[in-house]
């Protein structure tokens, strides 16, 4: 979905296909047929943006087979789908029964991460629509904090890898005329946990190909104020390559038994749900929701937020809620002003099948309806901010 911003630029809205995990090219094609095109049809649009997730094996297949890449591009066009952004965070195994900490490997100290992201950039340059010259790729925020934080050479290694990537992106732009930019995606528990944590490593790299991806669930989980966060990024000269529109789980009174019982329904075995509370003493947290609920690992004298991407249009029932207000505030700052601070927006609710059983979609039809409803909410927010939807 495309929108005209008052500044004259085109803002792209998509949804991320990591909600339909596939490890192979055949699996990606099945996603387009079984999920993405049906969502487009439900929305009644001729064109729908998707934030494509390509696992390592699928990406390698496309890099090694130009005919397959041309065929995928043709299939996207035939199904009324377009790609201007990729989710490069998960490397492989995102559809496994237990993902947890695995999603952070390889990190930016390992050569596989540089190789994979280089592949993704080349593929995105080839998949961009003819009338689009800029693409974006979100990636993990350097590394999970352990063992990275205990390795004195890790920061140098990661910085060297990202600098090499920036140089490769410069060469790619010169060769293809397509500008691909990377966004480190701050996430609780990582060495770059917040937007403020991203400033030092990004300014150390100092290249306009490497910026930040603002995920509004992660921002909210860490209790960051959108205005403060975005002002600091602007002051440091850090650009927003893309924004992921997502909402975290919020518990206002986690000391109450009924609130803890409701939270326990979201403590599931597949994904990591980092949980945080903010107090006068600062930010406290656990690596997973079940750890916060077990014993007294996390104080419950102040609200909790958990890294669980809940559907934008359907917050959980009381006594829980979502951080949709943080998304609204962030979006207002990103595209509600006289100049768009980013042009790539991606709805990223990958946890549909991890929701409590009574909230989980049971059929493809129900999942497509839910994704379409999320995109409709995002579309309405953009229109309310003065953007005009394009055909």
Strand content: 15-25%
Can you give the helix content as a percent range? 40-55%
Q: Mind telling me which CATH architecture this is?
A: Alpha-Beta Barrel
Structural class: alpha/beta
Strand segment tally: 15
Count of the domains:
1
pLDDT < 50 runs, ≥5 residues: none
Silhouette: globular
User: Could you report the average pLDDT, rounded to the nearest whole number?
Assistant: 97
Total of helices = 13
Integer-rounded radius of gyration: 20 Å
CATH topology: TIM Barrel
CATH superfamily: Divalent-metal-dependent TIM barrel enzymes
Strand order of the largest sheet: 2-3-4-5-6-7-8-14
CATH class: Alpha Beta
State the end-to-end CA separation: 8 Å
Biggest beta sheet attributes: 8 strands, parallel, barrel
Order of helices and strands: EEHEHHEHEHHEHEHHEEHEEHEEHEHE
Provide structural commentary.
Keywords: Isomerase. One of its GO terms (molecular function) is isomerase activity. The protein has an eight-stranded parallel beta barrel with strand order 2-3-4-5-6-7-8-14, surrounded by seven helices. It is 41% helix and 20% strand. The protein contains 13 helices and 15 strands. With 391 residues, the protein is of the alpha/beta class.
